[in-house]
Design a protein that fits this description.
Elements lengths: L1 H19 L3 E2 L11 E13 L5 E5 L8 E5 L1 H4 L12 E7 L1 E3 L2 E5 L6 E5 L2
Parallel strand pairs: 1-2, 4-7
Antiparallel strand pairs: 2-3, 2-5, 3-4, 5-8, 6-7
Length: 120
């Protein structure tokens, strides 16, 4: 009985790990992952703030030639600190990739979706 419980536990852990493992991609690969939940890893080339309070974190080039954008809407902006200070740093963002006006993006609703990997 103990042996079978260990086997079941090991299988459960393996299935759980596999279910939560996510694909890590570069900003230029994001266009191939529309509709998928992934981790996008890369250097931030530009951070901009619109007049409506939305933040745009551009990777793979500056707007309008950027390959990918992480977006923080005004309604969630107070959850994040020092977004402008991220420019030039390497980050990972995780979430479902959507396409907006031809550019892949992930909407960030929670700071846990973003990790600073390399500081300038």
């Amino acid at each position: 009985m103990k042996k079978s419980l260990r086997s079941v536990s090991a299988i459960f852990i393996l299935i759980t790990f596999t279910a939560f493992a996510q694909t890590k991609i570069t900003p230029s690969q994001a266009k191939d992952y529309i509709g998928k939940t992934v981790i996008v890893s890369g250097k931030i080339d530009q951070v901009t703030h619109s007049s409506t309070g939305t933040w745009f974190i551009n990777m793979g080039g500056k707007y309008p030639d950027n390959a990918f954008t992480a977006v923080v809407f005004k309604s969630d902006a107070d959850k994040f600190t020092n977004l402008k200070d991220l420019e030039g740093k390497t980050i990972e963002v995780k979430g479902k990739i959507k396409e907006y006006r031809g550019t892949p993006e992930i909407i960030l609703n929670d700071p846990d979706q973003m990790i600073v990997i390399e500081k300038m």
